[in-house]
Amino acid sequence: MRIAIIGSGALGSLFGGLLARSGQQVWLYNCSLVEHVDAIRARGLTLQVEGARQTISVPAVSDVREIRGAIDLLGIFVKAYDTEQAIQDALPLVGSGSWVLSLQNGVGQEEILARYLPKGQILRGVTAQGATLVEAGIIHWAGRGPTRLGYLSPMGSSTHQKIGEIVEVFNQAGIETYYEPEIHHWVWEKLLINAAINPLTTLFDIRNGILMEDPALRAITEDVVRETLPVVAAHGVLLSTEEALQRVEGICQATAQNLSSMLQDRHRSKRTEIEYINGAIAREGQRLGVPTPLNRFLTQLVRKTLPGG
Ligand code: KPL
């Protein structure tokens, strides 16, 4: 399968690297982390897993025009706020038989993609994998968890066959992946998880695992989960409070060594996705008439304390 990864930061490079290692034809694209692209071009992509290092040979580009010919699968991993620019840049790679998969945090990216592509070609996914960019060309696979994929709008049996193929390719690459007919629910569940983990790990500059170990932080995390649950329930997430707390705890444990993506943004003085995570929950809460003071507060804190929010 010819696969282009648009937004090859930590997570995009992890997926692209694993897919390339399993024999797929992969291109990593990143137009902002030029040193990362240069390092991969010079020395390959180094994947650090449990103390061991492995180098994967995979083409990396900072100009999308270096990727020739139509692509079977375009994986979108850019930050939520860069979605529009990413699809505009990558559009020349998309043919009528291509699939575009958003594996981003946050909600609303589907609508942006659907302005440029037929809905039938768009897939949405969520992942509990954790990856950290250690330095240019080196990523740490810092936590494992399931990846779930589904389509925005079913187009008949060929659609099922195609998504099945993608799921298989991901699993063959060592990425535990499932097809989910109700992907929308999983996107909102992931939003709940990110809302609980990302701003607190960022504000306190801690790895995901610490959130559950520190009693005071654990209590705040639980309050965020309780407050967010009625908002995501309106989008099909039908978990009890206990189940939701367990999900968050499970992800913190599985990615205990990971720096959340928001904290990695903070360390690189990059804009964060706070408006697309807790900010999105606060806006949706307002629309639904559900009070979300904690989400609002966390959004304001991240906005105020970090450069460019
Ligand atoms: O999605 C993540 C993120 O950091 O954005 C988790 C799953 C919390 C892993 O760190």
From TrEMBL:
Task: Give the enzyme's main class according to its UniProt record, as a single word.
Answer: oxidoreductase
Look up the record and name the pathway of this protein. Cofactor biosynthesis; (R)-pantothenate biosynthesis; (R)-pantoate from 3-methyl-2-oxobutanoate: step 2/2
The family database entries (SUPFAM superfamilies) matched by this protein are listed as: 6-phosphogluconate dehydrogenase C-terminal domain-like (SSF48179), NAD(P)-binding Rossmann-fold domains (SSF51735)
User: What are the Ketopantoate reductase C-terminal domain coordinates in residue numbering?
Assistant: 183-304
Keyword flag Methyltransferase? no
Alphabetic keyword roster: NADP, Oxidoreductase, Pantothenate biosynthesis
Q: Which family does it belong to?
A: Belongs to the ketopantoate reductase family.
Q: What does this protein do?
A: Catalyzes the NADPH-dependent reduction of ketopantoate into pantoic acid.
Protein name as catalogued: 2-dehydropantoate 2-reductase
